[in-house]
Amino acid sequence: MSESPEDALVHSLVEEVVDSYHETVTDTERFAFLPRGIEYQREAIRSLSDFIDYAEEIKRDLQIDEEIPGRAANQVLALICMAKAVRHELRMWIRLKEENWESAWTDLVDAQEYASSAIAADSIARYCNVKTYQEKLGSIESSIFPPQQFVSPGLIVNTYECSICGEDYDTCPHLQGIAYNGVICSRILRDIEAREVSFVDDPRDKKARVRGHHVEDGFRNQMTWEIEEDTEGSEHLVDETPDHVDDDEVEDFLRIEAAVMTADDGGDDFSEFREDSEDQSEQNQEM
Amino acid sequence: MSLEVTEVESVPEYIDQEGIDQDSNIVILPREISVDGSSTRLVDADESSTIQKLLEQEGIAEVEKIDGEGTRAEFGADIALPSLYFALEFILENPDIVVVTFELLAIYYSRRTSGEVSLSILAESDDSKYEFEYEGPAKGLQEIPDKLYDRIEDVEDESVQEEDEEINDGAIEEPSELERE
Ligand SMILES: [Zn+2]
To answer: Do A175 and B108 touch (CB under 8 A)?
Structure first.
């Protein structure tokens, strides 16, 4: 069966993105290691951002045309997700060198989530060695960061809204985690009854973690073990005492960041790495 | 990966109450959760709607869902699937549907998670009721039907054997496989 001119065009568009992906990611992955110079890592982030902008544009073109099967946009989405994963990993290394530990953790989790999204988006992700990449991120998690304790909210949801069509998820045709024409379906919580917060070892959302606990002279950071000034009253923090913590051992109580987060919770702003923004910050320093 | 089989007293009462045609359906069961420690409430498992839609979209029409009051949201890396109820007769007479059902679940959840999935299956005939528990990688879901049929065969053989033993008063009683587990 021969390919129609439209199909050929779609294939060549996707192939173009694949080539550009391999070129960019092969080049930038070289810098995804701790000792690499920050300036190279920043440059790599810029290259990836350029690739992501370009691929997003192609994806939009593919999405608009109803004649084009949704798979083409899904394939491009998978490549975008992988590039975003590597971009977060690079920023993680920079944050680590800056001793910005908590942001580094967030970037690691974002990298992991984007790698998973790439798998969900399309099987083309397999050709990007995503499984090996996930293993790399897993070993970074266990060897670079101290063990974390996580929290998980217990909720009864009365309505889940579909992120694709906005209808009730129970009755709409979309399945969560499946990509439709370049967009992954997810469920949005609507009308919930909160029940409890529990401590879990293996949460879906590794950003919902115990940030530390109160001690006599402040707040002990779980990541650094350093005692910080108490930040009681912060709206992002919830106080909770876990059942399994012996009161004699820990007189104070734990403080938990219990926000439910998703892959798209604002950590995707890489504008600080743009060429012009760097000039700006250098100018500011000079002043 | 593990698949445990146990004989259970009875399937939840609400299956009968809901008036579901047990001979022709796969039934997605709700979960029972406790409310204030004293009473209970039936809620949908987090994956119930997804499984119902997935199977229906693939042309498996024999799927019914017993609706709970709300959905219990799960936020673990591992995915707990709802319990599925089958009439034993349905399993025996529709192996193709059973095989396709678990293949679809395996393909779909392999893409959703690299963690583990858990699932329990209740199967019932006029005189026996069994619960099969699976816990393992999503890919392993597709191996459930083979194991399910093997175990059902074993269990049915044992019950025939037990009947024979009861007739023969002098026989030394061997513990059944179920008891050994
Ligand atoms: Zn929808």
So the answer is: yes
Q: ipTM of the assembly?
A: 0.79
pTM above threshold 0.90: no
Structure letter (DSSP) for residue B28: E
Asked if residue B30 belongs to a domain, the reply is yes
Number of domains present in the structure of chain B: 1
Selected residue of A122, A163, A175, A199 to mutate for chain B interface (largest B Cβ count, 10 A): A175
Can you give the pLDDT at residue B176?
Answer: 37
Q: Does residue B180 fall inside a structural domain?
A: no
* Residue pair A213/A255 in contact by the 8 Å Cβ criterion: yes
Task: Please state, in angstroms and rounded to a whole number, the distance separating the CA atoms of residues A121 and A127.
Answer: 13
Burial A66-82 (b: 16+ CB within 10 A, else e): eebebbbbbbbbbbbbb
Q: Which domain holds residue B154?
A: 2-172
Say how far apart CA A83 and CA A114 lie, in whole Å.
Answer: 9
Phi, psi of A189 (to 5 degrees): -70, 125
Q: Which amino acid is at A287?
A: M
Residue B59 Cα to ligand 1 middle (Å): 19
Q: How far does the CA of residue B111 sit from the closest CA of chain A (Å)?
A: 6
- The answer to whether A126 faces chain B, any CB pair under 8 Å, is no
Structure tokens at B85: 């109820």
On chain A, the residues whose CB falls within 8 A of the CB of B75 are 152-153, 200, 203-205, 208, 260
Q: Would the pLDDT of A99 be above 60?
A: yes
Give tens-digit pLDDT for B36-66: 778 888 899 999 999 999 999 999 877 888 8
Q: What percent of chain B has pLDDT over 90?
A: 33
